[in-house]
Amino acid sequence: MNATFAQRCDDSTVPSGGGLAARIAGVAGAGAALTYLSFGLVEWADRYNTRTCAEAPDFCMTLWPVLSFPAAFVIALVGLIVVYRLLGIRPGLAVIPPTLLLAPFPLTAALSTAGLWPATVVGAVWTTALALTVWRPYRILGLSTAATLLLASLIVIYR
Question: I want to staple 153 with a disulfide (CB 3.0 to 4.6 A). Which of 21, 97, 109, 112 is the partner?
């Protein structure tokens, strides 16, 4: 057995008490901040496009709305990598891709039904739920919370 793999999956490194609370609070704060920042960036790009093209008689589109989605994705990716590294949440390759690739579903559903601030809370819950899946004792809680959010969002989006 690979010693590095055994060390990463060792259940004795499961945080408890204050260590777990600090990590969960950090992940939730980062998820909320990145969600708010991403929505703000996309909204700003849309407002800029609307202002710039208000007087145009023909089709008009600036580059900002097109670039805002990849920029928000890259900012969220770098932010999650830094936060997970600082908080000691490993392995990042198991948590970061599903967090980023599936996040548009619950975030879009929350934004379309409730608004920006509830969507920010959903972003915090989403990142926290997927971060909990790293530790075996909290894996079921994290997966069930993430699955509930994903199922509810799919129902809202495709109803």
Answer: 109
